[in-house]
Design goal:
nine-stranded antiparallel beta sheet, Jelly Rolls, globular, 2 domains, 17 strands, mainly beta, 271 residues, eight-stranded antiparallel beta sheet
Length: 271
């Protein structure tokens, strides 16, 4: 066959093959098709390794906003109405750092300083609300914690509601030893239970720490290692804010000098 005839037959075959593909795609759809094709993008990675969406309060520090006054606040990741407002003193600040496992954001608090007065101070404050009162119910609170071994003190508070002597009781998670062993405190009236973990968190790595109060005692859980003290506490309800990183911003307050992520409070059904 002449070369010109072979070329004409080849072009005809290609045209028919392309036409068949176009018709098949129009009828049933083809992967990587036209602009009207529905395309599924890969899901975005989760910002946190935990799901605390059923908590009464969960601050994951992913959503940062500014108030009308220019102050920084963080939204409740559980979808509630609460916000954590940054409060500082003496040029203190919170620093946005990498979260647990490299997922999302966490907050770093001021490092220690040698002065006895005027040191940088910072905390977050969640306004008081009855929805954050555990009352007589079982409840749990905690956070992911990162702390350098040289930043421990005899008192540094991670999260709490109420203070010593507060009417209505208090609950708090703190690192109250230079060895970096965290403890949980629950008080109602004159009844107070304190349990300290046998695990140090002062090793420059992330640890998940939980405090739990039930009808028979209080326990602390650090990465699955549980220490417990038996005893009873009555209703815990007060009109204080939830505070994170410090109980206040005065010179004598127990400032935490590490990082926190996934601060939460969950309240169980009535006992």
């Amino acid at each position: 066959m002449p070369a010109a005839g072979r070329g004409a037959r080849l072009r005809s075959s290609v045209f028919l093959a392309v036409s068949a593909v176009v018709l098949a795609c129009a009828a049933g759809g083809c992967a990587g098709g036209g602009r009207d094709e529905a395309r599924t993008d890969p899901p975005a990675p989760a910002p946190s390794a935990v799901d605390l969406s059923d908590a009464a309060l969960w601050l994951s520090f992913e959503e940062e906003d500014l108030t009308f006054e220019g102050d920084t606040e963080y939204q409740d990741a559980a979808g509630g109405p609460f916000v954590g407002l940054v409060v500082t003193a003496n040029d203190g600040a919170v620093e946005v750092v990498e979260g647990v496992g490299g997922r999302g954001d966490a907050l770093g608090f001021p490092e220690q300083c040698a002065a006895t007065t005027g040191c940088p101070r910072a905390m977050l404050e969640v306004a008081p609300d009855p929805a954050l009162d555990p009352g007589t119910n079982d409840f749990e609170f905690g956070a992911a914690v990162w702390l350098n071994p040289d930043q421990t003190t005899k008192g540094s508070n991670i999260v709490q509601r109420g203070r010593y002597g507060t009417e209505g009781g208090l609950w708090k998670l703190q690192v109250d030893s230079t060895e970096g062993e965290p403890s949980c405190v629950v008080r109602s009236g004159d009844d107070q239970l304190i349990v300290r973990s046998s695990v140090s968190v002062a090793d420059s790595t992330w640890h998940r720490v939980a405090c739990r109060r039930d009808a028979t005692g209080v326990e602390i859980d650090v990465d699955g290692v549980v220490d417990r003290v038996e005893g009873s506490t009555a209703s815990v309800s007060n009109e204080w804010p939830v505070r994170i990183g410090s109980p206040g911003v005065s010179d004598q307050d127990d400032q935490f000098h590490g990082r926190v992520d996934d601060v939460y409070l969950t309240i169980g059904p009535p006992a």
